[in-house]
Amino acid sequence: MAQQDVEPIVQAAHVSLGYSRKRKQEVTIVEDTSFSIQRGEKFVLIGPSGCGKTTLLKAIGGFLPPYQGELLVKGRPVQGPGPDRAFVFQDFEQLFAWRTVLGNIVYALQVTKRLSRQEATDKARFYLELVDVAAAADKYPHMLSGGMKQRAALARALALEPDILLMDEPFGALDAITRNQLQLELNEIWRRTNVTIVLVTHSIQEAIFLGHRVMVMSSSPARIREIVDTSTAEDLSSAAFTDLSQHLQSLLVRQAPLLEPVAQLSAVE
After folding, report:
1. Which of 85, 97, 107, 219 is nearest to 162 (CA)?
2. What does the buried/exposed string (b/e) look like for 50-59 if buried means 16 or more CB atoms within 10 Å of the residue's CB?
3. Looking at the DSSP assignment, which residues form a beta bridge with residue 13?
4. Secondary-structure class of domain 10-84+162-266 per CATH
5. Which residues form the ABC transporter domain (predicted)?
6. Where along the chain do its domains lie?
7. pLDDT tens digits, one per residue of 43-65
8. pTM (whole model) above 0.70
9. CA–CA separation, 186 vs 197, rounded Å?
10. Is the pLDDT of residue 152 over 70?
């Protein structure tokens, strides 16, 4: 991926994340982690279950402040959630059940972007077309399949025109055929919007197919094992794809040595 901006859109320097217990004891989930993400990059987090991938995603989204280190978005410390960062989760029930698909997006745009009803409707229809769910605009969420619900949730997130799209295993609960189709569509959406994507997955194949770089995390408390460039291996049948799959598998199974924090940061700048 051509890197156009000198300053990364996300920078983490020696970040540690955790949750407080009684008597202010900190339970560390992510430990001394340093990395950066370029604007327009598709950056994937992968690692063992419970290692802190979602925790790190929440921190970028502004829902969990670091208790150590510095986390910057667009050059400024993350102070909380904002419309410049939009989430898409694995859970199918992300939409308001009492609003139509179109109504869900219009409401989000009126609240966050302060658009008029007509402006919000026009923008909502554009993004429903983009994710191929325009035919379901007047349906309610309970009338949709899982794949259609995820398309609608993605349309709502994209309609906010965020700088960063944060995706937490968005296709993990879908059947294989639907999942593969949405992976293809997400890559096409990225080509059309160039939005920065930070995606969590358990699938090595998905990580390589969707990502420009894949950050492999260790077991909790998580640190970085390696940040792997996967941008040249979009073709699933290529030797490069097979080699990268085997390499990522070895990092996850054999538990390779951890990168030192300084090396983590310098490797991506």
Report:
1. 85
2. ebbbbbbbbb
3. 70
4. alpha beta
5. 10-244
6. 10-84+162-266, 96-161
7. 999 998 888 899 999 999 999 99
8. yes
9. 10
10. yes
